[in-house]
Amino acid sequence: MTFTLSRIRSWLLPIALPMLLQGREPQTPTIPPESGQSTLKGQVGDLMVAPTRLLFFGNRRSAELTLINRGPKAATYRITFVEMDMTEEGGTKLHERKEKEILGSDLVRYSPREVLLEPNVAQAIRLQLRKPADLPAGEYRSHLSIFGIPDPEEAKAPGEKTKPDKIIVDIRAVFGVSIPVIIRHGATSATATLEGLHVETPSAPSDSPILTFRIHRQGNQSVYGDLRATYLPRTGPAEEVGLMKGVGVYLSIPARRVRMELQRQNKQPLGQGRLQLALLEMGTDTPLAQASLELP
Predict the structure, then answer these.
(1) What is the set of domains in the chain, with CATH numbers?
(2) 49 touches 103 (CB < 8 A)
(3) Is 17 helix (H, G, I), strand (E, B) or coil?
(4) Whose CA is closest to 69, among 50, 48, 52?
(5) What is residue 282's predicted lDDT score, i.e. its pLDDT?
(6) What is the per-residue pLDDT across 124-141, written as a single tens digit (0 to 9) for each?
(7) Mean pLDDT, to the nearest integer, of 68-72?
(8) Which of 24, 34, 280, 282 is buried deepest, with most CB atoms within 10 A?
(9) In angstroms, rounded to a whole number, what is the distance separating the alpha carbons of residues 296 and 283?
(10) Is 64 within 8 Å of 49 (Cβ atoms)?
């Protein structure tokens, strides 16, 4: 019996997807975390998704995720829950479920689970929250992953023919996007601090300096916000030199390390003065945490 590489079967996709997602940055919207709305779209291939984070809080029991196929051909997408944890570097890794642990996927039902989208057609994925009466207060999270299903006919190599004496297996990349689904139940809160600010000197004059620091989270829920770095020179006006939107620290870690590129509008290096860093409530100028660094 001869073994050759050919098409990956659909039953392998749920196994392959978590490995492909491992190490990717979780996506969060540039909106206030309690608004439950987003105009930010995450794009993977020809698929556009909005919003890029779903939050259930208070009396909210339902939500919708919109998928739009921007490509020239019809495409099939599968939707499934994947459990992931954030790393201290801001990436993700597969979550190892603990005994009797409750996850976001245990509390949310959704449909449909697979869609065929024609070009420029939108499809709503409807989610419904179902909380048991004895659910402990806290935050629960899972990632809803949407990934494309390869077309078997297009995956065939030119001239490929099915032969009864061969087992054909083809390993192909599966592209997808993961959307955090978060449930906050009962009394939850969190605070944040910014610590360990340090500017790495660029190795070449054309390179930008890098601000490194840590976001420390305290409390029983995640922290989300926009990071803004402002340069205050000894003389002259203040200048924004860095911006990172939708930065989160999930409940699975107490702190996250961040690297932010700093760049002045006139491309000049940072001189004497002070660097002000703020973690802002997403989409606003309300500070959640602030810190500063004196520049010699």
Answers:
(1) 2-185 (2.60.40.10), 190-295 (2.60.40.10)
(2) no
(3) helix
(4) 48
(5) 86
(6) 999 999 999 999 999 999
(7) 89
(8) 282
(9) 32
(10) no
